Amino acid sequence: xxxxxxxxxxxxxxxxxxxxxxxxxxxxxxxxxxxxxxxxxxxxxxxxxxxxxxxxxxxxxxxxxxxxxxxxxxxxxxxxxxxxxxxxxxxxxxxxxxxxxxxxxxxxxxxxxxxxxxxxxxxxxxx
Length: 127
Hints:
127 residues; globular
């Protein structure tokens, strides 16, 4: 599995590329998830900086990408940043772009593809 790439980090947020196949947060599998990976990164950076051990670093997941999907994700490193980013997401002032890679031949070069997601709350799966 590819290693996540951190593309931006400051004292409030961390932005990284989640590889496809990696879960955004822990699940029933034994695979490394992005949240755990980033918490380990934050702990290692704190140790390098000589900070005293304060337990598990704070890291809030702001949005999710499904395991098969790769893409850029934003995490908050402080409760204040988490609240602000969550507000932006809730108020739709956070802009998200999605891109798909399609294989095959198509009759038209442009168009709109529309499909629907059915969520099963019992199994926590979407189809």
